[in-house]
Amino acid sequence: MVPFHHNMTSLAYAHYTVDSAPIEALSEPPSNPSHSPPLSTTSSDDNIPTRGRLDAHRPRLGSRKSSGTMIIPRDSPRVEMAPGEEEYEPDDVRSMSPRRTSEVIEKLGEDARRNLIEYVSDSEPCCFDANDMLFRQAQALRASLMAIVDRVEAVKIEHEKLEGGNKFLQSYIGELIQTSKITSAAPSKKGKSRNVK
Question: What's the rounded Cα separation, in Å, for the pair 33 and 91?
Fold first, then answer.
């Protein structure tokens, strides 16, 4: 029994000596200091992200312009423009009436006729005796202006016909409505008279 106990002790010491050797080797400092990585504080400072520096220059939320200022509330008095604030040029479509009366059409025809007469009086054929080409161009322009005047007259006549037809239709529709009211009220009266009998 004693030798066996001695062997166990030797094995235990051997295990201790084997395990302790690597620990002592690891705890020793490196023999060659030239291969150790240099420790510098400047490199670590350079590797720090500059997020904090950028956040310092970032504008605050209070200084930014909110998009809510571009939205007009529904109950605001400035939702629609006042009638006097809308200014359009005379040739603008928005300043023209979509429907012209017979008086406006007649005035347009008179203006076109007057402009034609003024143009013809200013461009007499005697002024173009020296140049036949200009005289022919003036004749063609005069013919086109006359055609425009004729077209205005035709449109005026058609407009008067449409106005007459519109009045006739309005009177006819009014008569139909009156007739329908009379016919709808008549059966109810007959029914009441039968119930009384």
Answer: 93
Interval 37-57: pLDDT, tens: 555 444 445 555 555 555 556
Q: Structurally, how many domains does the chain consist of?
A: 1
Say how many C-beta atoms besides its own lie within 10 A of residue 159's C-beta: 17
> Is there a domain that residue 85 lies in?
no
DSSP result, 43-67: HHHHTS-THHHHHHHSPPGGGSPPG
Q: Are 116 and 153 in contact (CB under 8 A)?
A: no
**Is 154 domain-assigned?**
yes
Residue 105's domain spans which residues? 100-185
Residues 22 and 25: their CA atoms lie apart, in Å, by: 5
Least confident of 1-15, 26-40, 73-87, 141-155: 1-15
Residue 56 lies inside a defined structural domain of this protein:
no
- Rg (C-alpha) for the chain, rounded Å, is 54
Instruction: Look up the pTM and report it.
Output: 0.28
CA distance 156 to 102: 7
Assess if residue 116 is contained within a domain.
yes
How far apart (Å, rounded) are the C-alpha atoms in residues 178 and 172? 10
* pLDDT tens-place string over residues 136-164: 788 888 888 888 888 888 888 898 889 88
